[in-house]
Amino acid sequence: MSLKNLVVILRGSCFLIFIVIGLCLNVSKTFANDVVIAYTDEQMWQWVNETYLLTESTIEKEESLFVASRVLGQSCRVNLTVPTNSADLLQESLYWEKNYGLELRGGITSGDLDNSEIDDGGLSYLELSWDVLDNGYKEFDYRAQDLKRRAALERISTQLEQIANRYRCRSYQIGKSFVGIEAKIAAAKLGLMESVYKIEQEAYFNGGSDLDELLISEEALFTLRRRLEQLNSPQNYQQETFEVLNLPAFDINIEQLLQNIGDDPRFKSVVDLQQQRAAAINPYQDGNRLRFFVRKEFDILSSNRDDLVAGVRFAVPLVFADRPNYQNKLQQLDQERSLDEWERITRVREAYQSFRQQSDRVITQNYRYLRSKERMRRVFSRKAMGDPLMLQAVIARLVTYVDASLELIAAKQGLFERANALFLTSRLDFSPEYIRPLPMSIENHRSRPYSRGVYIWSDAFNRLSNEQILLLLQTKSFTRVMLSYSKMTDKQKLANFMQSAQQKGIKIELMLSDNQWVYERNHMKAAQTVAALTMQTDHIHLDIEPQALDSYAEEKEQYQQRFIDMLKAIRLQSPDVYLSIAVPFHWELETYRKVAALTDKVVVMNYENDRVDTLVRRMKNILQVVPKSKVAMAVRPNDFSTNFALEESLKLVNKASGVDEFVMHKLADLVNE
After folding, report:
1. What is the per-residue DSSP string for 630-651?
2. Angstrom distance (rounded) from CA 331 to CA 328
3. What's the rounded Cα separation, in Å, for the pair 379 and 477?
4. What pLDDT score does 121 carry?
5. Which residue from 218, 222, 289, 643 puts its CA 20 to 30 A from 485's CA?
6. CA nearest 107: which of 79, 127, 137?
7. Do 59 and 366 form a contact (C-beta atoms < 8 A)?
């Protein structure tokens, strides 16, 4: 078969671009006499290693919650002062407050002009008067107080508008806080993809691939360069922009936020001031007038007037109707206050739901990142062991890892943006007390801490209904199931069970248990069986147990090596499947080291003993060479006198060894408890 035909066959694969890379490497060697090879395998491995280390070191170094508070509460670099006439209103109120209704009046009038005695009958006076009601002391005092209320309303309105403007400004600055870390990782990916593109370009011109294969990596280069150009644009190019910050995920203390909203004095003050203005309608503009005066009369133009008099004047309009009733206005303001408070809290709750949805995406993306990181760790472990690796598959995994890192960064940015939108809705100034660490682990359920799994064999699975099994799993807090997959297993029942379990958040690992697979002649059969089963699930558990074979005692080392070789054969065909294995507690340490590098979880069968010191000693021995995150301890509940004794033993094992994943063998033994 020609290389070109092989490329056509493989074109539907999701790893097409990287399979083509492998073909290109072979083509480069084929044309070695005529063409200078652009990159060697060693160079490509160097780029892989450098890209991985740069990405890992960037993502793993996470900032503290203090830095997150700094970003969420940062000040804006532009002047956000909102124009206000509050000061003018206060100045005007001071004017009316100092106006007491006092007036100095005076006048001079002649006598009758027809009378020749012009100085007889005239009137000359100087009067000090005090107006109390309409257009006097009381009305002026009302004006002063009303202007103060208007100034207070204006001041509160300005404060709220300034808070809103700060959050709007931060929505832009938050995006800039993520530019540095995104640019760093994207640049690392660009360097890798440029080397990949050169290999594909060489293969294309040498006839080893077609143009459409070349366009795949060209698209990746084009989009990466455009994104980096955007990140380095003038509007983003500032010193703080390129500070590489891996900001932490966080949760919002919604209880504290809602409490502070309820206690916010500003909104209560607004309503109180509005009610005061509505209730204190100017009562002095209805024409009621009252004036006190002291008047000195002079004898100018009047020979008989030289008196000092005092008096009072009043006026009462005669109106044949009742005054308007403003009580309805007060009730309306009360209703508006209740409605505004309800609407504000409702909007905050809605914004919090949106924030929680984004935090769920962050958690999901974080697990995707961890899975891709684990696959890369497995790649480097296999390389260190000298296992043959397909370079194109390695690059595929690396790109997946880098993309998962970028997607995690994007998810965190979305989290910060939604938090900022929530605080904008609350109309409260940001405070560090509003955020707290985001829980990333499952809480204890029914007093059963730690991650728990259980073995289910075909006879028990077929005998019990799916509903019974799921109820038992939830009651016992099992989140993982190692379910026997054999000729005896009811396949239709299994399909329904897996669907129901997935909806309840229970992970199913289909278990294969043929100990004949340990022999070299059956390794290919084992690999093919696992590969075929990955069409139904991506979680496989192997319960091979070569130590149960008759000749194991005489050939322990040989059987352990055969077991390792079997795992290598399986991994070669199914590199991405989640693979867990059951192992005894008495193997060689080197065996545990090697099988751990080839699997995702090592379940140690710590059976036939209920002594905590013995259980701990066995686990600590294995933990010398296997990371704790990869270890689970399997126990038989029947080995313990009571369930309480079992639970206490698990707590002590966890405290002494750090193991926090346990598997029960088996479900059938738990049915009649």
Report:
1. GEEEEE-GGGSSSHHHHHHHHH
2. 5
3. 33
4. 64
5. 643
6. 127
7. no
Tokens 């496989």 correspond to 540
Residue 308, φ and ψ in degrees, nearest 5:
-115, 115
pTM of the model: 0.53
Q: Is the peptide bond before 601 cis (omega within 30 degrees of 0)?
A: no
Domain 451-670: top CATH class: alpha beta
The domain limits of the chain are: 3-74+174-254+346-432, 451-670
Looking at residue 31, the DSSP 8-state letter turns out to be T
Q: Report the alpha-carbon distance of residue 640 to residue 85 in Å, rounded.
A: 79
DSSP classification of residue 445: B
**Is a pLDDT exceeding 60 seen at residue 28?**
no
In this structure, the number of other CB atoms found within 10 A of the CB of residue 471 comes to: 12
Do residues 149 and 277 lie in contact, with contact meaning Cβ atoms separated by under 8 Å? yes
The mean-pLDDT minimum among 212-216, 341-345, 431-435 falls in: 212-216
Do the Cβ atoms of 317 and 286 come closer than 8 Å? yes
Rounded Cα gap, residues 73 and 39, in angstroms: 49
Cα(128)–Cα(101) distance, integer angstroms: 11
Q: How far is CA 103 from CA 503, 519, 590, in A?
A: 85, 118, 107
Q: Is 545 left (phi over 0), alpha (psi -120 to 50) or beta?
A: left
185 or 449, higher pLDDT: 185
Tell whether the model's pLDDT for residue 346 goes beyond 80: yes
Question: What is the average pLDDT across 329-337?
Answer: 66
What is d(CA 191, CA 172) in angstroms, rounded to the nearest whole number? 29
What digits encode the pLDDT tens for the residues 526-560? 999 999 999 999 999 999 999 999 999 999 999 99
Q: Give strand pairing partners of 445.
A: 448
**CB contact set of 616 (below 8 Å; sequence gap of 6+):** 652, 653, 656, 657
Task: For 561-583, give the DSSP string.
Answer: HHHHHHHHHHHHH-TTSEEEEEE
Cβ pair 191, 47 in contact under 8 A: yes
CB atoms within 10 A of CB 616: 21
Kindly calculate the radius of gyration of the chain based on its CA atoms and give it in whole angstroms.
42
CA distances from 211 to 7, 13, 214, 389, 473 (A): 12, 17, 5, 27, 53
Of 459, 423, 407, 101, residue with least CA distance to 284: 101
Phi-psi region of 332 (alpha: psi -120 to 50; beta: other; left: phi over 0): alpha
Residue 3 has pLDDT above 80, yes or no: no
